[in-house]
Inverse folding.
């Protein structure tokens, strides 16, 4: 029998598949008759394409931007640069991936991760339409990211982490795939501490990006538990009576003064190295070989 996590995942998948179909049929993102209703405030422009300014909109196909279901523009605060590898969690129609791909070109790479076949198909079509060759879209769950440890420089996301039933696992996975010194820069919904239980228990409010949201304090705690430093949370606008959109930024510790890059493969004991570098190491070498902690 499916558990609560599976029920939430399948409900979210169904809703976002409907949104992809609506976008493919030219009905837009949040506001199409079959699409996701992101929140009671959709008509005011607090979700979706209207959040992208004109300068940003030209970096992705109109179809990708118009299909956006996000609550912000994470690429505006991710400080992307040439050569970086960017991972977008819950990439949807691909707007933020394609914007990222242009900003990390020519030598960088952007990856979109999504669990919905319809969204992946739409995103790949949008990438082909844009002629972007340094972007890819892969299928998977945020709680079980199909990427290697320490393989990306930046993790972004646009109003998707709140949809997961296991947010600590998502944040821990983000920390795992980030390289030492890597950046976490997402837009997401932050719940007010006094959100009422009726809203919390509503599946419609969950798929609408509200009921599953963490409070600011909870988000800070989850990021800290996953090992992130330099946490910043800045609310940008209200999206619901009991919730606001926010930019959330954090950094994975760099491991400087612990494991020099030239010695990463063979210097530290696993426990010491995992703590500060999040990479495997030879078990028979003492930590003092590379200034790892005792």
């Amino acid at each position: 029998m499916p558990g609560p996590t599976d029920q939430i995942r399948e409900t979210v998948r169904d809703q976002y598949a409907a949104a992809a179909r609506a976008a493919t049929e030219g009905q837009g993102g949040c506001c199409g008759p079959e699409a996701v209703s992101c929140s009671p405030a959709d008509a005011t422009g607090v979700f979706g394409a209207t959040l992208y300014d004109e300068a940003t909109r030209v970096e992705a196909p109109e179809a990708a931007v118009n299909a956006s279901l996000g609550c912000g523009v994470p690429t505006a605060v991710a400080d992307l640069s040439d050569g970086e590898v960017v991972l977008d969690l819950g990439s949807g129609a691909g707007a933020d991936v394609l914007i990222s791909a242009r900003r990390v070109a020519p030598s960088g790479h952007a990856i979109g991760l999504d669990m919905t076949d319809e969204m992946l198909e739409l995103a790949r079509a949008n990438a082909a339409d844009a002629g972007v060759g340094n972007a890819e879209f892969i299928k998977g769950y945020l709680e079980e990211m199909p990427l290697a440890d320490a393989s990306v420089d930046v993790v972004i996301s646009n109003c998707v982490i709140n949809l997961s039933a296991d947010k600590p696992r998502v944040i821990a996975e983000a920390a795992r795939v980030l390289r030492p010194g890597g950046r976490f820069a997402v837009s997401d919904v932050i719940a007010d501490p006094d959100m009422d239980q009726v809203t919390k228990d509503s599946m419609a409010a969950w798929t609408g990006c509200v009921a599953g949201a963490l409070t600011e304090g909870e988000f800070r705690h989850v990021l800290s538990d996953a090992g992130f430093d330099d946490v910043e949370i800045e609310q940008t606008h209200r999206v619901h009576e009991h919730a606001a959109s926010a930019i959330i930024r954090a950094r994975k510790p760099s491991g400087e003064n612990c494991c020099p890059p030239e010695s990463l493969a063979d210097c530290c004991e696993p426990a010491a190295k995992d703590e500060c570098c999040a990479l495997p190491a030879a078990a028979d070498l003492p930590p003092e070989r590379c200034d790892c902690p005792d």
